[in-house]
Amino acid sequence: MSFVEVEFAFFLPVVLALYWVMPRIRVLQNGVLLLAGWVFYASWNWKLLALLVGGSLIDYGLGRFLGRGVSADDATQGSRRRLALGLSLCVNLGALAYFKYEGFFAQSFNDLMGAFGLSASLPVLQIILPLGISFYTLQRVGYIVDVYYRRLPASRSLLDFLLFTGFFPQLTAGPIARGAELLPQLEKPRRLTAMLLASGAATVLLGYMLKAWVADSIGPQLVDPVFAASAQYTSGAHWLALFGYTLQIFGDFAGYSLIAIGIARLFGVELPINFDYPFLSKSLPEFWRRWHITLNRWLFDYIYSPLVSGSGWFRGRFYSALMLVFLASGLWHGAAFTFVFWGVMHGIGMMVHRAWDEYYRSLCRKDRRYVAWRKTLGYSLAAWFVTQSYFVLSLIPFRAADFGQTFAFAGRLLSSGGTQWAQVGTVPTLNLLLAAGFVLLYHLVELPGLRRLRELFFAVPAPLRGAAYGLVVIYLLLFVPVGASTFIYRQF
Amino acid sequence: MNYGWKQLTLVTLSAVVVIVIADLFFARIVPPVQMREVEDGISDFARRNPETLVLGSSHARTLHVVGEELQRRTGGEHSLVAVPMENGKIEPYLWVLRNRLQPLIDERDNNGRLLKSNLRRFVLITEWWDSCPMDNNAPYWNIPARAWTLTDFTVDVAGEGVNGFNRNYFQNRLRRLFSGSALIYNRTQQTLVERTMDMLRGRPLEPTDEVLEEKSLAWQQMIEKGVRCINSDAQMRALADIADFAQSRNLEMTLLLFPRKPSTLSEQAKQTTLARFARSIREFAAPRGIRVVDLTSTSPLKDEDFMEDFDHVNAVGNREFAIWALDHDLAFLQTAPASGAGMATAVQE
Description:
Distance between the termini of chain B: 76 Å
Helix content of chain B: 40-55%
CATH topology of one domain in chain B: Rossmann fold
Mean pLDDT of chain B: 87
Largest sheet of chain B: 5 strands, parallel
Radius of gyration of chain A: 24 Å
Helix content of chain A: over 70%
Strand content of chain A: under 5%
Low-confidence stretches of chain A: none
Structural class of chain B: alpha/beta
Number of helices of chain B: 13
Strand order of the largest sheet of chain B: 2-1-3-4-5
Largest sheet of chain A: none
Order of helices and strands of chain A: HHHHHHHHHHHHHHHHHHHH
Radius of gyration of chain B: 22 Å
CATH architecture of one domain in chain B: 3-Layer(aba) Sandwich
Number of domains of chain A: 2
CATH class of one domain in chain B: Alpha Beta
Number of strands of chain A: 0
Order of helices and strands of chain B: HHEHEHEHHHHHHEHEHH
Structural class of chain A: mainly alpha
Oligomer: heterodimer
Largest interface: A-B, 34 and 37 residues
Shape of chain B: globular
């Protein structure tokens, strides 16, 4: 089941009604949400629900153990705690490795041996990738590590913890919440307010526009045909497809995240934001603080920070740690060398930025004019252009099926023997322009000078605002493609 | 943003008002035409005790009109119920027959008497496309999820999870739920925007000659290509199972090859796809004693008797066809079936 598919239009109202009709008792509310989460997951594959529940039960038990008070025998307890942490990491990351990476690693190993003239035949299993495993695994690992380091008390209630790992709005594609963000909310009963409903519904609508209208309109019309038969298309069509894919992937995931946040809000639960107007970023670090925020902060919280501040080889080795983080990010996105390449690209990008930043700071120390230059519009525009261009170009290996397609596509951006251009009629072209314009507007109203526009909209009398929402719904009913929806991040 | 209940109510109400007004506006441009669906056919069959049961793709809707004409002519002495399975193929017809119609066909009252005691005939409406394999690469639009009950849906989801195939159950329920709404009911028809744009541009709503010619050509090519996929094993096996079922219930069976719009039939298509399909149907039917009525290119229906989709007969065409068919190839529907045919005799045996 996906948020933008028809069955969800039947599922959500039933769960919402049941949830708010219940007496305002935490156990009942959480019970409804947990049941809904399991039904939601089982509607994809009920057999693999056992994996989700089983893993959660193990982490609950280990979390309770890790959360116990400090005893007199500190050394023994310390080693047991490390053992419990190791067990949890093995179970969680082992399941992820098995389901997501077994085929990739086995195939890569066989190929590597073959390259050296050795015969290896590790079995390459065709396993179903459990829905959402990349997301719920990180959430559970984050919880266990936080409890281990006593940054978070262990959840006492099994119901709350199962809901923490099975809350359906974020179950399949995040946002990846920290225990400290979600658990305290689940430990209290929620109250229905008009503000909650209004804000939740508006967020869902905004997310639906980005996902079902922007992403699902642009992808099949501008992107897929060019990536499928690249040689037939002109260079212009390649650029259009690449920009189209940039908008598509943003609409797809930012939209889906907003729907998740909006739905959670309808139940009185606040999820962390996942996208913060990333196309306004003027540096790569800023970009990754604005794009898929919950994944990146997880990578920095649980990989980067422990590495550079720990006592191991990585201590103080910021560049190596950055590369490792983005390699992990690449692999997280997919078990393929194109994703690894994408990770390396961003690892290098982050390292170059860090080196530039250090160099520029040294210049600033010598000459204060450099400080002023950094604040000029020209510097900002150049930084913005370089950052966004780098991100857009990095999407070629991200979208391509293999390296052959990656390099062929990249080459055809400069010169292509193809003669075809995107075949789109007049009305769909206008619709696509509007969709692209919507993403632009979405970012522009976040700029300091234009934020007032948003405030102005909410100051408009309620009937006019309602009419505007009505018009948006009508437009979506007319232009959201039927049956075209795929969710790119679901496969990660 | 700061909302109270009053504000929220006002915003919601005004949004709903705007949507309803727009819906009414669009309903004037493209009225949501209530199509007879498989559920309508099944519920008609459940209520009535007809002499003839017709099953087929969306083309079976035309037979509903034939049924009305039959009723008018014979004063109810001879009757038929048509069950149209949108976008059907032979395997889904078998599914509908076994899972939805068979329980009704075999239903008995408290005294053990068959409720469908009048049932004597079974007509399967088909054409070349129905015999091509199911497309496994794409979620199959409507079949057989369109004919499912909630139990069928639940069983399928338990086995397969929600997918593009069984999602059609919900898609169909949603459309039926909002069957009066142009914005929802007509969404999949892709005509709302085109018609509205036409109206705004002041152009006539009728398609131009070039568009018609292009469409005809596309249809011709599709039918010509059909020669590669017709008579697939799975579909022909399903046909044999349907025939066996009819035989087991002692029903006189007819295979009706439905008329096609004349301009969609090229000479090449007639000589290859259509000829081969008709021949295989005849070869299938002859040893089983099944009647074959091939109206693919021999009915009096003209291009203008078909809808804009080039596939279905329009209201005027349906009336003309009903009158003509009952005077000609389907005249047998007005006569008593061969002696011995029928559910009652099947039971006696």
